[in-house]
Design goal:
Length: 127
């Protein structure tokens, strides 16, 4: 691949890096977006499609918590998408290495945690 010379890490490291970049882009690009009960499913689909268009993404799923959304609605019927509302999961495949990663609000931490849920595939780097 043309980008390999810019990375000083194993293929597993690169796959995990790609997962983190994708989740970070979802979070920082969409938190603050206007959302209503009518538009929530459309916004979920748009975020998923945007994630799927990026390199190495083979699956993407986004959920906007409707209960949290309804608590935040203004009298105009919409809210800004908040960090407590947004959950996402993605699957990256890079050189046979599969990374399953997700993000979502963790009440115990008071934080929208991004995490690696599973990595499978080669444990060595043939370079």
């Amino acid at each position: 691949m043309r980008t390999e010379r810019y990375f000083r890490c194993t293929d597993r490291d690169r796959a995990a890096f790609e997962a983190g970049i994708k989740l970070g882009s979802i979070f920082h690009q969409y938190v603050g977006s206007p959302v209503s009960e009518r538009s929530a499913s459309h916004l979920e689909q748009a975020i998923e499609m945007g994630a799927r268009s990026q390199p190495y993404v083979v699956e993407a799923s986004v959920i906007i918590d409707r209960e949290e959304l309804s608590r935040c609605l203004s009298h105009f019927g919409y809210a800004s998408l908040g960090e407590r509302m947004l959950s996402a999961s993605i699957v990256i495949v890079y050189k046979g290495i599969r990374v399953e990663a997700s993000m979502g609000w963790v009440e115990e931490l008071g934080y929208p945690l991004m995490r690696i849920d599973a990595i499978s595939g080669p444990h060595h780097d043939p370079r």
